[in-house]
Amino acid sequence: MVDFSFQRFSFCDFPATLSPPLKTHLPLSELSHGQKALWLLQQQNPASTAYHLGLNLRLSGNIDHASLAAAWEDVIRWHPQLRTRFLLSDSGPGLLTCPDPEPLRTGSPDARHPFDLANEPPVRAGFTQEGESGVLTIHLHHIAGDLVSTAVILDDLTRAYRIHRGDGFLKTPEACLPFDEFVSDERLYLDGPGGRARSEERRVGK
Q: Under DSSP, is residue 89 helix (H, G, I), strand (E, B) or coil?
């Protein structure tokens, strides 16, 4: 059985000890229109947690911690956006996909701690054992997902957990559209007649 609740974050007084944006000469993938805006907002206020999505799930029953940890790493491998770094190059901000997934932590991640998008992935997860049950906490930066994304993450996590528990009837999810193809399609739309018309509607307040 799974009970879940969302956390609402806001601007906090956590000290802004994050490093400035890293400049790199590595080839970076292009950000989407929304990611560019969120990246800029985070640079203007690096101590902010306003764009964090928080999810608490109480897992009841005999939870296999090893299977849960392995399932979490599977989810991160299946979704490259969850293992990206947001860096700066001469052409502007971009993203670098890292090969290794961030492991499931023991205990709940600190909700007050802002994401350092240049040096850590945009998602954190931890499991707090409470007898045979426990609480799974997931923090996701909005630059890498939204509330719909959390539903996908939970569905895939359930699938992966059952696979690791020995349910042979489940298959891994099919690969989704690569993100760089989505960004390319978005750019074509925004630069085309439809995007220009939408921009004009917003300018005149329609």
A: strand
Dihedral sign, Cα of residue 113, residue 119, residue 124, residue 127: negative
Q: Mind listing the pLDDT tens digit for each residue in 34-85?
A: 899 999 999 889 889 999 999 999 998 888 999 999 999 999 999 999 999 9
Contact in structure between 78 and 173 (CB atoms under 8 Å): yes
Nearest Cα to 176, choosing from 73, 75, 53, 34? 75
C-alpha pair distances (Å), 170 with each of 28, 114, 167 = 35, 36, 6
Angle of helix 147-164 versus helix 65-78 axis, rounded to 10:
130
Helix (H) or strand (E) holding 69: helix 65-78
Report residue 114 as tokens: 């802002």
The token pair at 28 is 């970076």
- Residues 6+ away with beta carbon under 8 Å from 41: 48, 51
Give this prediction's pTM: 0.77
- 84 vs 28, 95, 118, 126, CA distance in Å? 11, 6, 9, 19
